[in-house]
Write the structure tokens for this entry.
Amino acid sequence: MELRPRPLALAAAVALLLLVACSTASASTTGTSAFPSLTGIPVNQSKAPSGYRLTPAQAIAIAERAPKIADELRRHPHLTPATYTESGGRWQVSWFAGTKEMAQAIVDDRFGAVTESWTGYQVAWRMARGYPGAFGRKFNATYVWLPLGILFLLPFLDPRRPFRLLHLDLLVLVAFAVSHFFFERGNIGVSVPLVYPVLVYLFVRMVVAGFRRRGRPPPRGRLIPVLPVWVLGVVLLGLIGFRVALNMVDSNVVDVGYSGVIGAHKIVHGQASQLFAGSFPSDNVHGDTYGPVNYLVYIPFELIWPWHGTWNDLPAAHAAAIAFDLLTMLGLFLLGRRLRAGPEGRNLGIVLAYAWAAYPYTLFTLASNSNDTMVAMFGVYALLAITSPLGRGALTGLGAAAKFVSLALGPLFARGTGKLFSKGTLEAGLALGVVFVLAFLFFIPSGGVHALYERTLGYQINRPSPFSVWGQAHSLNWLHTVVKVIAVGLAVLVAFVPRRRDSVTIAALAAAVLLAFQIAAGHWFYLYIVWFTPFALVALFTPYVPVTQPEAESARSNGRGRLLPLRSPRPSPTGPRLRSRT
């Protein structure tokens, strides 16, 4: 049975939905509050509060002598000062133009000295200040991320073919570290622009991989030129143990993971109707900006390690982040076994899981205990279920109801590897839509759908951010519009072309779509790298593993435009090593 709706109407409807997703692609990391530990607002400016040596007026006078603050006051002489006491015997002195905070200084009460001073976007965005270990803790140590980068690159380096493209691809994947270096030093004026050459290169590579002509010979050389696969398997086990141990011993929970725990606590305690009613605590007031599935998946962990009302170590967030990471790794291993038959599939699965475990930025997300690995997790299992319309549709819908950016993958996964106008495409699209709508149905607040929108999509669309070139250079608004149109256009286009596609094509196009939305996002952060990482690994590595003869014969018997079989009943004749036909 084939269904033939009007292509233009279908494309227009999908494009409208994706415009919303494109506007909310920045919705993963909220800015940390500018007032994380305020304990009181002194009223009497000439009297020192209890336990303090300085008066508010003295704290203001000391703060005004800081060079950054003095320069800002010369430019804006009519700013209004305000003082706050902080935990640890410190003062926060802020200057406002109306309700907008323009400058901020931290004064040590004991020594009467300015310890911090901030202006510009570093006032509202604490994550732009370069506090050591604010994200990822020990991950930022050179002796952690550098060995990981080497472990990620080394097994795939071919000394006989130093200029093969895979070398460059993997080097670019770790090149985010250049931007990250400046971010850790609070210089986002440099770190933010340096992200875009990396994103653009990877986007172009994934587009080329997704639209390249099928049937071309595989790249020359082995995927693992020197080492046997069993060595990677042993190192993989060690990496898993190291990642889990580091998470437990030296990692922190950013506001994203904290949000999941709070939401799960509310659902468990019968407050589902309050989930999107602006009832989150003051230290994470916009933690209700994600989809309900984001909070539902934290429930098992919150039941075991209940939240006690404070932003403490939050073991539930740690356990959830570890679970997302391990499940993604398991999914990649299973996907490798499905993509190739016999020992070659097992080896490909080990390689994909190893690459995930060794890639530094998957550890960065794990060490920050963020929820961003959920995008990768749902995406990997949707790709694993690509032969099932209901399965891939439901999994994509769950991902979209957790992190809205996954909506961008809707057209691609709705079609899958079959024909566009088919029963399978319709079933997958309906499954996606039903799961997405049902996920929200039980969490509509008393204010109705409008209130739900304002707490989630409305907040994400309207939130300004300096963590993108579009937020730093408003003169590029015209280019930003062009980029958003390209991102949405690509997400719709991949539902129509290429006509013949397999699982590797889907992976490459999924990575390209997510990269396009990240380039277009109004807010970008390093936690988002894991969104496209598993798809990129599949697209880059799988072509080096040849399809066996039984698989090729079975694929030809299926005809054009149909899903290629992923497993063969007979073992691969090429043996246990990953080889190419050369």
In short: The radius of gyration is 25 Å.
